[in-house]
Design goal:
CATH superfamily of the domain at 60-253 in chain A: MetI-like
Strand content of chain A: under 5%
CATH class of the domain at 60-253 in chain A: Mainly Alpha
Order of helices and strands of chain B: HEHEHEHHEHHHHHHEHEHEHHHHHHH
Strand content of chain B: 5-15%
Helix content of chain B: 40-55%
Oligomer: heterodimer
Largest sheet of chain B: 7 strands, mixed
Order of helices and strands of chain A: HEEHHHHHHHHHHH
CATH architecture of the domain at 60-253 in chain A: Orthogonal Bundle
Number of strands of chain B: 7
Radius of gyration of chain B: 24 Å
Distance between the termini of chain B: 81 Å
Distance between the termini of chain A: 43 Å
Number of helices of chain A: 12
Number of helices of chain B: 20
Number of strands of chain A: 2
Shape of chain B: globular
Largest sheet of chain A: 2 strands, antiparallel
Chain lengths: 292, 474
């Protein structure tokens, strides 16, 4: 081995060691635990059950319910955030009075910690003192997220959109401002309308950024926890019990370490599959964009 | 002039007599803690008035006196358990003293997670306060003993969850007349649930009629462990469903297997609980135990069941409460026959809540922690803590002048605690109570949200409890 290779390995070793201990070891431990029936308050201790936890998972209606809520949440928030983010980003390419202020205000939710976002929404939606129920009541809407499951679900959706659309907007805006000028000038000379420019130039050029953004948002929304935990704790009933909340309740409250580990491993598998699919799509699109 | 000098001399003499007595005590603590000076001990507890009092007063004075640094984390209830359980089960030894609520003690004892304090007292007498006096603790300490009578926790808070009502409203002549006209009996604290319901209906309607923010009922109905606790600790026992509806001999909850969880009366009680939410404020489904007390302090509630550790601030702290001096305390209403059943020791009418400080088996500074626990629970400070946090764990505290003076300000609560405390009980001896609570929470909160019918929920709950108990090896 050449000295430069030794040097490279030497430099990598500390990082690899850290990754091994904080990434690989816990993961392997979770995989190991997932093969056992293990509740810390069980009189039986750890009982090896092989893949029984994974079999149980497939027939667990509570887990499936949480998964369904999680997936619905991901689909709605990601679609809305993408459309809204793109619309605002395109709007921000125009010059108008107060643009700087608008951009600053838009980015404000990004500076706030998720748990604080949850607290803010707790106060805004509180049926006794919150401004939202009060204002909605003025127009005849009885808004109470402690009672109405649908309202609670759409409130967490709106909260996530409010929190993360600025992130999508700013990223897409960065992508747009990085476009080459020539094709747009040529399109203008050829008499292309704004809509045609958007459809045949902006969107194709922006597709890799949109897909990357979508990839990040899907991962983020699928594992959402803090805001929802703070606002509804998964309620009313189980209306907003997303998968992360379900896993936390199972492991930390029910102390069912074996089954909870099985669930975590399965969710990791699901995430990896989704990532793999999206990454493949992104690479294909990038290749096609380059070829064009 | 001569008389003044005599008085002054007498005062100085008395002071001189007092100083050595105090100095000897302080000296004892300093001597006992000498070996651990500079050591830092860490503790974790729930964010309750007693814990905050310990953090703000006991810990600071202990540090000053002994040189042992105390880092006392006061956090949310579930976070506290998560941290304690993770620390002890992994043996990391982060915490040297922890709050052990009465209901979790059985689980900790079964797992051998706590240090035997009786053993410390015997093996290390030099570290045991000569004035500790275990016999001075109320019977509440019995919950923290094992079968051999060994102590595993020193109580620092004990209080009831009981009935409170707005005295000013109950004594208002206009209200009394209107109530009598409607229900035909004089307004007073209810004896049974029918009376409670009538009062709840009346005050909620009264609030609407007068266009004031007033409701006849309150509950801790958020999707949170508190909603399950409210059912198993307060509502069901007062309807005669004890021990979470579980038969402790057969370890089963369904009626078919010997339990009472899905019995006719348990269903009746649960239906009542759900139905009563309409008489509570609109935000009741977002309330935990904290909001329940807060809304009483805000003057919006005419009657309800609350944890009485909140009573001192509701009755006396004008910066937090708008109903200071206006709250009355009484025993909770019960199902017919339950009160006499409890009086005969065959049941209980509500929850005797509280907790103790224990030393995790994983702690590496047990001796320093033991000293601090004794300091935080010592006799001479108990009245002060009772004043700050409304809890009494020592018999001698009841007789102290401070508590005697405080009792009328708290509507005679300490008399109820002393004389009627035996009607209440701590949690059932369920070592698996954490995972059990999660199942109760699931079904109770589903019903509160209207996802399932109360009867169906109770049947499903009982079946799931049986299933869990089998899975856990019971």
């Amino acid at each position: 081995m050449r000295s430069s290779q030794y040097k490279a390995w030497g430099l990598l070793t500390p990082t690899l060691c850290i990754l091994f201990f904080i990434g690989l070891v816990p993961f392997l431990y979770v995989v190991y635990l997932s093969l056992f029936k293990y509740n810390i308050f069980s009189v039986q201790g750890m009982v090896f059950t092989g893949v029984d936890n994974f079999r149980k998972l497939m027939f667990d209606s509570d887990f499936m319910h949480s998964l369904r809520i999680g997936v619905t949440f991901v689909v709605i928030t990601c679609v809305v955030e993408m459309f809204l983010g793109l619309a605002i980003a395109l709007f921000l390419t125009n010059e108008f009075v107060g643009k700087g202020v608008f951009r600053t205000v838009l980015a404000l939710p990004l500076a706030v910690a998720p748990i604080t976002i949850g607290s803010i929404w707790v106060l805004m939606t509180n049926p006794d003192v919150g401004p939202l129920p009060y204002l909605l009541d003025k127009i005849g809407v009885n808004y109470n997220i402690g009672v109405n499951a649908r309202q609670a679900f759409f409130t967490i959706v709106i909260m996530d959109i409010w929190h993360w659309t600025p992130f999508v907007t700013l990223t897409l805006l960065a992508g747009i401002t990085g476009f080459p000028r020539e094709p747009f000038e040529a399109a203008r000379v050829d008499g292309a309308s704004r809509l045609q420019t958007l459809r045949y130039l902006t969107l194709p050029l922006l597709t890799p950024v949109i897909l990357t953004m979508l990839f990040i948002r899907i991962m983020d929304t699928f594992r959402i926890f803090d805001e929802v935990w703070m606002l509804t704790s998964g309620g009313p009933g189980t209306a907003t019990r997303c998968v992360s909340i379900h896993v936390v309740r199972l492991i930390l409250t029910s102390t069912d370490y074996g089954y909870g580990s099985g669930m975590s491993v399965f969710l990791l598998y699901l995430t990896i599959v989704m990532c793999w699919l999206l990454l493949n799509i992104i690479s294909v699109v990038r290749r096609e964009t380059r070829e064009r | 002039m001569g008389r003044k000098i005599v008085v002054l001399l007498v005062a100085v003499a008395l002071l001189c007599m007092a100083i050595p007595a105090y100095a000897a005590t302080a000296e004892w603590w300093q001597k006992a803690a000498a070996l651990y000076k500079g050591v830092t001990i860490r503790g974790v507890s729930e964010s309750t008035p007693p814990s905050k009092a310990v953090r703000d007063y006991a810990a600071r004075s202990f540090e000053k006196l002994t040189g042992i640094k105390v880092e006392f984390e006061v956090t949310s209830w579930d976070e506290m358990y998560t941290k304690s359980i993770s620390d002890i089960s992994r043996g990391t030894g982060i915490y040297d003293f922890i709050y052990v609520e009465q209901d979790i003690i059985y689980a900790y004892l079964v797992k051998d997670w706590l240090t035997d304090m009786t053993e410390i007292m015997e093996s290390k007498p030099q570290l045991t306060d000569p004035d500790l006096d275990i016999d001075d603790f109320t019977t509440f300490i019995d919950y923290f003993k094992d079968a051999d009578g060994h102590v595993f926790g020193i109580p620092f808070e004990a209080f009831l969850k009981s009935y409170v009502y707005r005295k000013d409203l109950f004594e208002d002549s206009e209200i009394r007349a209107a109530f009598k006209a409607e229900y035909g009996w004089d307004l007073r604290p209810p004896k049974d649930w029918d009376e409670y319901t009538q009062i709840a209906k009346f005050f909620t309607a009264w609030g609407k009629k007068k266009d004031i923010d007033l409701y006849g009922h309150v509950a801790q109905a958020k999707t949170h462990p508190c909603v399950a606790y409210e059912m198993v600790e307060s509502i069901w026992p007062a309807w005669g469903i004890y021990n979470w509806g579980i038969n402790l001999e057969k370890w089963r909850a369904t009626v078919e297997n010997g339990g009472t969880l899905n019995s006719k009366r348990a269903k009746e009680a649960f239906r009542w609980y759900i139905d009563m939410l309409k008489y509570a404020p609109p935000g009741v489904r977002t309330y935990t135990w904290d909001e329940t007390a807060a809304v009483v302090g805000a003057g919006k509630i005419a009657q309800g069941l609350i944890y009485l550790e909140n009573l001192p601030w509701i009755e006396m702290d004008t910066s937090k409460s708008v109903v200071t001096g206006k709250i009355g305390v009484a025993l909770p209403p019960t199902y017919p026959g339950i009160m006499s059943e409890a009086a005969r020791g065959l049941g209980y009418i509500g929850y005797y809540d509280g907790g103790a400080f224990s030393i995790p088996i994983s702690s590496r500074k047990k001796e320093a922690a033991w000293l601090f626990i004794q300091w935080a629970t010592r006799k001479e400070w108990s009245p002060k803590f009772a004043e700050l946090a409304g809890r009494v764990c020592r018999k001698s505290t009841f007789a102290s002048p401070e508590i005697k003076a405080l009792n009328p300000k708290l509507a005679g609560y300490y008399d109820i605690l002393r004389e009627k405390g035996f009607l209440f009980a701590g949690a059932a001896p369920l070592p698996m109570h954490r995972p059990l609570n999660e199942i109760y929470l699931k079904w109770v909160s589903k019903t509160v949200a209207g996802e399932v019918d109360p009867d169906v929920a109770v049947d499903s709950l009982a079946k799931e409890v049986d299933k869990l108990l089998v899975e856990l090896g019971y």
